[in-house]
Amino acid sequence: MTQLSLDFADPLVPAATPRPTRRRREAARARGAVAPDTSTGDVAEPVALPMPDPITDLLTTMNQAHASSATDPNEDAPDITARREDRLWQLDGWTARVIKNEDDDGWAVAMYQDGEPEPALVGPWTMGRDKKNPKPLDQAAFNTLVKTASEVLQRHEQQRHAALHKRQTVFALDRQWEVRLDIVPDEYEPHALLSALDDAGEEVACIRVRPDFRLGSASATAWIEDDFRRPRGQEE
Fold first, then answer.
1. Mean pLDDT throughout 184-189?
2. Which parts of the sequence are annotated with region: Disordered (predicted)?
3. Among the four residues 37, 101, 124, 145, which has the most C-beta atoms within 10 Å?
4. Are 198 and 221 in contact (CB under 8 A)?
5. What range does the domain containing 214 cover?
6. In what order do the strands lie in the sheet with 107-113?
7. In this structure, are residues 168 and 195 in contact, taking their beta carbons and an 8 Å threshold?
């Protein structure tokens, strides 16, 4: 009988896995990608990596774009510099100009409001110490000129309003009336509105007349007593 001899090979021994050094494990742990070391029992805790927030990224991008496109609102504003010279001051919408007086050897000052071709005020100006040249303008004098010119314009406006809007109170038909004449200085069709208000303040009549209608006590009373008919000579 033949004996079989079975010669078994050496069992396979798995190759030893190289252990990462401590420095490599620390570097990997810092990156959050370290694998647990089961051989030593040193199991690294998993580190959660920050996840990108799309809403936060969008808001950040929009804010950066807005900041880069924003401009200074005063960047394109014109640089208006006030002028302060001996014979010319420009400040706060007014211009003071010292001019030669045409009537004599003296000087005058003219005040112009911005946008107006004609001066609002023209008055005499003080001679300088040399008795030849005008006294230089200064802040105090300019303020006084502005105040005076503003008062002149205000009086002119009041006079203009009074000339265009006239009022007359009369007593007729056993009651008190207020008759108004409002002139409309239209460039092409100038006219006036003649109206009557009773003692209760109610408008009773209103007609259109010529702008040269003379409103007075007699004309107002006659118009009321004539039953508010158009006055004679006021046909358009």
1. 92
2. 1-56
3. 145
4. no
5. 163-225
6. 83-84, 88-91, 94-100, 107-113, 121-125
7. no
